[in-house]
Amino acid sequence: CVTLDVQAACRDTTVTQELLKEGFHRDLLVKVELGEDAGGCAVAAQVRLPPGIYVDPYELATLQQHNLTKAVLFPGAIDVEAPEYLARDLLLLLFLEPDALRSRCFRAAVPVHARYHRPAQGTEEALVVLESPEVLLCCCHSHLSAECWEPAEVDAPCSSDSTSPCQWHSTKHRPAYEESVLRVPVGLREHNSLVCALTLLTTGLCSGLILAAACKYGHFP
After folding, report:
1. Which one of 2.60.40, 2.30.30, 1.10.3820, 3.30.930 gives the CATH number of domain 14-187?
2. What is the pTM of this model?
3. Around Cβ 219, how many Cβ atoms within 10 Å?
4. Coil, strand, or helix at residue 12?
5. What is the full per-residue pLDDT of the chain (221 aa) written as tens digits?
6. Helix, strand, coil abundance in the chain, percent, nearest 5
7. Where would one find coiled-coil regions in this protein (predicted)?
8. Which ranges of the chain would DSSP assign to H, the alpha helix?
9. Facing residues of 73 across strands?
10. Where in the chain are the domains?
């Protein structure tokens, strides 16, 4: 009976995660509908980004200066030029904004970018899978149901504008979509020989043209 009472008190929190636009440069949209009212609480989604996708910290800083996105990225220093096989996972704490019409609904979007992958055998695309985010609440002046929320090990402030530590809480949630998949175009290994031959031919041709131009128009002592 106690278990049933707890389940009845803890209404499901629902998470929706979408990748908008096309190509290598997308927008990640996260929407959360809480199971209970969270007035006065900060709501965030903790998103784990696999090596195949990243958030540009310089772009994020610019968006935050214009108050368009609020987020904290771990680690803060990222090699945006690294290919997928030399990159590592990232952790994004995305602060969500409340919906003006529905008190329990929150949402936020952030630009994400796909990394280049190794050439594949027999397929022209690689799959980057985004797991469902973790929903977090930071309530400095409110109390959460102990049956529904538990302390989370998140070392981050309650907002992107603050440096004061905060105790975040997490809850089990029901994802509207279990995972999002980004399809990244990749080269074919079968084309390696052709690509190498054309690259060498083009390099030799261009080098010859540059050398010919230098000999014809250059002034040598």
Report:
1. 2.60.40
2. 0.77
3. 4
4. coil
5. 223 333 434 667 888 899 998 888 999 999 998 877 777 788 899 999 999 999 999 999 999 988 888 998 888 788 999 999 999 999 999 999 988 888 789 999 999 999 988 887 777 788 888 988 988 888 765 666 767 778 888 877 777 666 676 788 887 766 666 568 888 877 666 666 777 878 888 888 898 888 888 887 766 56
6. 20, 35, 40
7. none
8. 2-9, 57-65, 192-217
9. 92
10. 14-187, 189-220
**Paired tokens of 207:** 């080098």
- What's the token pair of residue 201? 């031919």
Question: In this structure, what token pair is assigned to residue 38?
Answer: 């969270």
Pairwise CA distance, residues 190 & 187, whole Å: 9
- Contact residues for 103 (Cβ-Cβ < 8 A; gap 6+): 37, 39
